[in-house]
Amino acid sequence: MEGESGDGSDDCSEDAVVGNVNKFCVVPPGYNSQPRRGHLIFDACFESGNLGRVDYITEFEYDLFIRPDTCNPRFRVWFNFTVENVMVGQRVVFNIVNFSKTKSLYREGMSPLVKSTSRPRWQRVPPKNVYYYRCPDHRKNYVMSFAFCFDREDDVYQFGYCFPYTYTRLQSYLEAIEKKNLDYFNRELLCLTVQQRRLDLLTITAPENLDPDENQRVVFVTARVHPGETPASFVCQGWIDFLVSQHPIARVLRQHLVFKIVPMLNPDGVYLGNYRCSLMGFDLNRHWQDPSPWAHPTLQATKQLLMDLNGDEKVDLDFYIDIHAHSTLMNGFMYGNVYDEEDRFEQQMVFPRLLGNNAEDFSLANTNFNRDAVKAGTGRRFLGGALDDNCSCYTLEVSFFSYLTNSSTVPVPYTEEAYMKLGRNVARTFLDYYKLEHLINPKPTPGPQYPRGQRNSSGRGKDRERGRESRGSRATSSQQEVGSYAGSASGSSLEAMPVHFKMHHRDGKRR
């Protein structure tokens, strides 16, 4: 979540834990014999695991402490652990007692996820068994308690804050795409992390677009700068899946655009099971202004690439989108920037509006534009000022829990597939956008030709029309294909699109 902070107590005297529990068997006080069946064994020593401490309260109740982010005790939200050595019919209450945030979707009906070795599909604990409340026994901090009944002795049960998406899963996914030998997919190493993990850069486009003599129109995407925001990876995977598919829209997008994607900006934090920080305790999304190649190598490498693209006269960097997950709001939505230039401000409103037409779980009501000083170091804010005026910079947020649609009266919980569907819908929306920009033509009708470098009537920055001549032949060749699915685009004009957004100014008040 872009604007999130640890809004609970930073006093960690009660929960001063620095490592994960490792096959930790919890027995009653004074018990000195061999553990027996029903003495629960907790473990979080695995990739993206997090559970720092377990306190025995009674044989039916346990207090669980989230391990804070490495080198930063402020952030305690993500948990991911296993329980084994259970008895059939054993009923327990688990209390997560040291959340660093007070506001939470647990107030709105969210519940933890659970799966087991014999049932590997994640399910939510029934909401009726979940309670979120201030607890006087824990300094009046908010506690999330949930009741659970174990039903299979030989199963290992896993509980999580949200669907895990690990570094290893990403590597396996990218390797599987590489094995297809697609000529429009390229994976390269942008840099190594502090712990020597890969920072992957993906380029998805038609091969002819990579000709050094060709102009490029670039959409740049990043995800997982905050490691606990796992929905961002599912959205990003859905986006990638669509772009590398043989869907007609994907083929045309590849023909006209260059997608550059950094799918996991914080691999070390993801691997370690942190919620918000890197290995060294830095919230990377506050260091875009001056990243250190030593302390923030992934951020520094990504920023340098963006600056290089921005300075390349053969590149139009049209979009920067950073994918996050939100812990207090529902639906998908976007954050954008406030600009003094009216044309630029109006232009960046277009894409969210089009996305709202394509994705039922996208909320225009939650979408807002701000220039909060506390977010000056975020990718969206910093790059909005550092990149060319014609680049629209957004944070794409998606709820950890659920979404409401126009037809639903109760929240619909997100699934892994629903997150990926949002990613696919974001990708599809670029067709609508570039049709409005007249860079992809829905019908084979002749249009005006613009000399290279001429600006269009919107007055946007660096050569908005640049590259049209060189792409003219490809646009013509794809017109028939585009026409076959033109109904998928919104067909809206800018003049016909009312804008209903929340405007946030420096004082944070709505106007």
TrEMBL record:
Q: Which reaction does it catalyse?
A: (L-glutamyl)(n+1)-gamma-L-glutamyl-L-glutamyl-[protein] + H2O = (L-glutamyl)(n)-gamma-L-glutamyl-L-glutamyl-[protein] + L-glutamate
Which residue windows does the record flag with biased composition (Basic residues)? 501-511
Composition bias of kind Low complexity appears in 473-493
PROSITE patterns referenced in this protein's UniProt entry, alphabetically: PEPTIDASE_M14
Where, per UniProt, does this protein localize?
Answer: Cytoplasm, Cytoskeleton, Cilium basal body; Cytoplasm, Cytoskeleton, Microtubule organizing center, Centrosome, Centriole; Cytoplasm, Cytosol; Golgi apparatus
Query: What cofactor does this one take?
Result: Zn(2+)
Q: Which GO terms describe its cellular component?
A: centriole; cytosol; Golgi apparatus
What's the subunit arrangement here?
Interacts with MYLK.
Name of the protein this chain belongs to? Cytosolic carboxypeptidase 6
Native species: Branchiostoma lanceolatum (Common lancelet)
